[in-house]
Amino acid sequence: xxxxxxxxxxxxxxxxxxxxxxxxxxxxxxxxxxxxxxxxxxxxxxxxxxxxxxxxxxxxxxxxxxxxxxxxxxxxxxxxxxxxxxxxxxxxxxxxxxxxxxxxxxxxxxxxxxxxxxxxxxxxxxxxxxxxxxxxxxxxxxxxxxxxxxxxxxxxxxxxxxxxxxxxxxxxxxxxxxxxxxxxxxxxxxxxxxxxxxxxxxxxxxxxxxxxxxxxxxxxxxxxxxxxxxxxxxxxxxxxxxxxxxxxxxxxxxxxxxxxxxxxxxxxxxxxxxxxxxxxxxxxxxxxxxxxxxxxxxxxxxxxxxxxxxxxxxxxxxxxxxxxxxxxxxxxxxxxxxxxxxxxxxxxxxxxxxxxxxxxxxxxxxxxxxxxxxxxxxxxxxxxxxxxxxxxxxxxxxxxxxxxxxxxxxxxxxxxxxxxxxxxxxxxxxxxxxxxxxxxxxxxxxxxxxxxxxxxxxxxxxxxxx
Length: 466
Description:
466 residues, Pdz3 Domain, 2-enoyl-CoA Hydratase, Chain A, domain 1, seven-stranded antiparallel beta sheet, five-stranded mixed beta sheet
């Protein structure tokens, strides 16, 4: 018999039939992996976007993580399984145990040594309290020099209490100054995605600048972060900005509802009658929703009516700063707004994630703690465009590398991505043709953002399965 389950999609309560669970026989009871893998298989057969490609004969006695990955399509770069669902939920809301800084790893020229360059520091974290800044260069962790051979092990140590040896660039002396050794505690950090907002008066323009680092409505099922987003845009409106720069360079995705809120705040001429995006599911889900009187709400999401909207004030022009980690819900902002306004992207090519997930937990069996993030839908804009599998690439001189040394602080009008956006808005170069700091580009080995559970996620809450 099918099991009837309920879940919410963009605020709509949907009732859908999920296939019954496959039970194991007594001979299999000694292997605890079988129950978990039976559950995983049944869920994937129901919800997975590429359900027709799931192999029938996969060893159900193996480790559930290995089992899950053997079910995936060759076209799937993003489905994920985690050992603990609550850990997954915390990570999607920006809650994790850490010291509070994100970094990129770079190899030292003509050496096997590696350094960690801080990208940004989270407010009110141990790293913030200790005075760490963007651009600081870490050469040792727990007394050991980082190298190409040991960086994976040393990076894992930063999720617990640890020490770092680091340097900071001095503009005055044009060199890196040794800052010694610093001990940092790893604590539970609730990161606020609303990282920075300010207004610049440049020439004849008043320019709003907003750094938003992931999409989450708030922790503990609140909308505190979305409410703060509303206030940021309301403040821009009250200050009379006529141009907006949205910095998503480190934003690797998150909740679709927060993307919907942001797009509704900045889109030009948008309201609840206009379509923001469309979802395409597997045949089972697509047919189900098509046959429901209110199924349109699961297949198409509209903009919200927001009194704070500044689309007209900014003249139907939006400048978005991107990076090689910009993904998912960030790319939805670009694609979803494109039919309604001119979107200029500046920075690096984005990831290219036009598919999304439900976070799924098992609520019936207390022994199965896994959380699943399978790809469940493909997403399109109102003009049925979804062709950004290879990402969005800035054009011409708008292709600007964020990874460089020394790094200017976010919000500094000579920081290269921000400077290019202001140049396009004002029509003149910021600070003259020669920047005050000559920097050198580098290609990161990896970044700490890559390790986040929320990275490359486009999330609709919250499907539960037995």
